Amino acid sequence: MTKFVLLYFASAARYTKKDSDEFEAPLPLSKLFGLLERTYPGITSQVLESSAVTINQVYVDVPEPDTEGGGVVINPTDEVAIIPPVSSG
After folding, report:
1. What confidence score (pLDDT) does residue 62 get?
2. Which residues pair with 53 in a beta bridge?
3. What whole-number distance in Å separates Cα of residue 75 and Cα of residue 18?
4. Residue 19: pLDDT above 60?
5. Of 81, 75, 77, which Cα lies nearest the Cα of 8?
6. Pick the residue with more confidence: 34 or 71?
7. Full-prediction pTM beyond 0.70?
8. Cross-strand bridge partners of residue 74
9. b/e map of 40-54 (b: 16 or more CB within 10 Å)?
10. Which of 12, 31, 56, 69 could covalently link to 63 via disulfide, CB atoms 3.0 to 4.6 Å apart?
11. In 1-89, which ranges are continuous DSSP H helix?
12. 27, exposed or middle or buried, with CB in 10 Å at 0-12, 13-18, 19+?
C-alpha cells in the first residue's frame, strides 16, 4: 500500500502538534474522521466538527461514518487538508 499526505492548518496543526501526516491509502473519505479520532483522541469535537476538508485543493463534504460517502476515496498520492475556520478581527 502507498500513502496519502494529510495537511493540518491553524487549530488542527496546534492540536496534532504537526503540520502533516501520512496515512495508508486508499481510504474511503467517510472513514477519515474516525481514523483521525483514533490517532488524536478528542480531535473530532475540538477541531474536525467545524473544519473544511480538501482533496487535491478541492473542497469536499465529509459523509457520516456509516455511509458510503458517494464513493469518494482518498487515493495514494492525494493531498488532503484539514482547514479549520479562520476568524478575523
Report:
1. 87
2. 60, 82
3. 22
4. yes
5. 81
6. 34
7. yes
8. 27
9. beebeeebbeebebe
10. 69
11. 10-16, 32-39, 43-46
12. buried
